[in-house]
Amino acid sequence: MFSFTKKQEIFDINGVKIGGQPGEIPTVLFAGLFSKGKPDLITSQKKLQKIFELSEQLGNPVIPDFFIKKEEYIEIVINFIEKSIPKNIPFSIDIIDPVIKTKVLELLKVKKLLSRTIYNSIHVGITEEEFNSLKNNKPNMIIIVAFNPKDKNPDGKLEVLENGANLTNDGLLNIAKKIGIKKILLDTAALAPGDNSGAAIASIPIFKEEYGLPTGCSIHNVVEKSKWLDNYKNSRKIVDFSSNINISAFGGDFTIIGPLENAEFVLPNCLGGYSYIRIL
Amino acid sequence: MEIIKTSVIGSYPIETDNMKFIKNYFNGLENFWDEYISAAVNDMIKAGIDLISDGQTRDPFINIFTRNIKGCRIRDRPEVINKLEYLYPIIFEDIIKIKKYLPKNKGLIGVIAGPYTLSESVVNFYYKNKMELAFDFAEIIKKEIDLIKPYVNLISIDEPFFSNKFPDYGSELIKIITKKLKCLTRLHVCGDVSKIIPDLINLPVDVLSHEFKAKPQLINSYEEYENNKKICLGSVRSDNIEIESVEEIISHVDQASSIFGEKIIQISPDCGQRLLPRDIAFKKLINLVKAGEVINGR
Predict the structure, then answer these.
(1) CB within 8 Å: A124 and B23
(2) In principle, which of A16, B18, B44, B101 could form an S-S bond with B49, CB 3.0–4.6 Å?
């Protein structure tokens, strides 16, 4: 097994641990719900139950990652989280629109759910309103997406964390600290194939050594956008699921796996990856 | 009398749409910078400026170069971690794109970060001394200049660090990068250059450019020396949001003409306009152009 010289943080959210040296803590999966838009509550409830059971059997935690794409879905999704997600399980909210982000944070505070919330995510698109809303409604944990439109290499990803690449007034790490959040997860920003997608995996050990913070990415996005795989339809899902093993093999701590239904197949892969890294 | 051309120094303030960058990222779409470059160029064209730059919208000028030179990386600051190598063009592609849509009556400036300023701006983890580093930067910059020279009307070298200290090897550095250049060359040094004028006037460049508006005393400083260089006269401030009137600019040029005479061939902002609000930067350029029209019409 390899290890990092830098002390590796392990963060706890509702009993789920993320981080540490390679092989120390099982890889955590973030599994997406409602990514297509309209929340399908009944089907999702059933799928979640099945995945939570499988997660318990295999030992890799699964954190539901809730997409909220329209304001009209905010209450529906938050009520679903409140009523249907077991209280010992944390969740993440995955939103792009800063206006929706702000409203969701306010409602999570009202519902007293912020202690279970992983905020997915802050990035160079952070607005002043979002920053202020995060200060007033602090989630327990935050994901920083290290996407730098100026430089897709690991150096560029580090730059955006360090100084915002002159796109933001401060580095994204400092912004998270100014918000007052200590539990920071780093997403190495996987890009479309042919667009230096490998840099997301290469960045994992670099980030871990540099900051000691839990690190991962959504390598699924690379596979999903690989058009060449359309010629190999039977293989697409296999490639998608198995791609996640790269994250643990490179010392990563979490993987954002795409839709929830992928979890059934990615979970055994991640357990395999976790076993592999423990043996190395 | 030679027509005085209006020019910019380099940077122009264009705000990027970071949310668009991130939406494209999440949707797996590529991000392009062309819209920001063309916004800067179009503002300059619309204002009536004669000599136009790419606006340096991608990055602060040091980062534009260090980001694309092998051996450099950018952390909190640009760092040199290995021997420098020229791997691929730095500003060439932007120059080619601008050239395609630039009106024929407009000139294009190739704005280059000077090797001394580059060597002083980076954190050096590799070279034994800054001189060695500066000479390697010069060799790389020269390659970029040779690539862009057929497409530009002016090569403008930014060396703001000369005003802090003009190194013993400063002249050698400029010689390397201007060697065998046939197009017009300009050296821009902002700050107080009064003590280094003897060095500057002997450099192998055609035009010297300084922030004469913020530091009008520099005009008198030049009077002490026999100067054969042409002058790009900083005529509107880049560090102040107050918009100089046309009359004020004309009066400033007149004052400078009493010392420089016909050596003034360009008027420009004092420095890059990156730190100004866009509307202020634009209005300053408009008044600069109006002043130029009056001066050239006399």
Answers:
(1) no
(2) B44
